[in-house]
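I hope you will forgive my troubling you with a question about protein structure. The matter concerns a single protein, recorded as an amino acid sequence and a row of backbone structure tokens. Please examine both parts with care and let me know of anything in them that strikes you as inconsistent. Thank you for your consideration; the sequence and its tokens are set out here:
***
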Amino acid sequence: MTDSRPVLFFDSGVGGLSVLAPTARLLPQAPLVYVADSAGFPYGTRSEAEIAARVPALLGRLAERFDPRLVVIACNTASTIALQHVRAALDLPIVGTVPAVKPAAEASRTRVIGVLGTEATVRQPYVDDLAARFASDCVVLRHGSAELVEMAETKLAGTAPEPARLRGVLEGLFAQPGGERLDVIVNACTHFPLLEAELAAAAPHPVAFVDGGPGIARRVAYLTQGQQWPEAPAPGRAVFTALDARAESLRPALARYGLENVEAL
């Protein structure tokens, strides 16, 4: 017997591809459905009440349509605000995405780390808790940027980000007191690992970047261990809540991630 139920990844845009990719490498036989809430994009500038209401309702519709074996909320903002609501609403495993503060603190030698995310994520009490639990001996600098989300989306569509704009975003971290000693940055938005090489080149001094993608892949593998997979899964599916010109421009990039079929919800 084989089980064709997919693993469903959910994000406001295409940032969650940075989470899908390590999972696909670890579980190459897993059927994949990637959902971008393009009609609600971007989440980072929406109110917490909007996200807390929108995400569980939308994931309920998606669970009915695609019958996933597991859902990954591949979005830091949605996870920090709506994860508990989604888990209460759906009777299936839900994996969230949280800022990788613990591995950043473990890797830092200077004991100054940065958290780079959306404004909605970096102000969450959840980040305070992570910093207190795993980085209590570190200075934790934070900066929120919606601009970087847009740059990641346009990069996937084929337009390289401008180095000056990247430097301007990073200045929000490095210009803070202690920024000259910053040595590890948490990419606390799933869009940002898509720009990691460009961010590293734009930083004023060498710095390491960490994100939650590899850890989430291991978690998905753990939660699905012993389950059956298709011998040859169908091509991955990319689903947009609004199949607009932006979504259409992403077809070539989506195909590189194995998402050959693009459709509207």
Summary: The first strand starts at residue 7 and ends at 11.
